[in-house]
Structure prediction request, 169 residues.
Amino acid sequence: MQPEEIKKIEDSWRNMDQYEKKKEKKLKKSAEKVRNEREGWMVKTQQNLKLLKFDFQEKYDDLHERDTKRDNLVEQRHKEKKDDITIRKEVFQLKKFDQEENLKRDYTMKTMYKKQLVDKIKEKKERADHVRQQQQRIAHMCKSQRDSYEKAFDVINKENEAKREKMSQ
Prediction:
């Protein structure tokens, strides 16, 4: 082989080598470009995912907070209903107890009033009996006095008649 051919071969080899190197560089650049684009996409997607996760987490937290508030309100309402029911029961029991006390008080007042009426009636009967007895005593005394007056008058009348008869004779 001649030196020109060798030179041509070497030049072609060099050119091929340079071409291959350029091709490799282009491939590396394109691969790097693709890698960078992928990394950019990955970063963007990760950022988007983070935003979505943040949004979803925020929505989840908001919904969870609403659920807990709703549950707390339901529990509070249930507790208030129970308290209201117990208060109503207590009020009912107190009213019932108050009515029973009032009935007992009324019964005792009525029985006391009846006893007082009975006592007053007994006193009035006793006074009436006492007045009757006094009237009978007075009537008896008056009768006996009247009888004695009548006897005395009879005696006086007989004496007066006897005197008149004596005088008329």
Remarks:
- Residues 71 and 77 are 10 Å apart (CA to CA).
- DSSP finds one helix and no strands in the chain.
- Helices lie at 3-168.
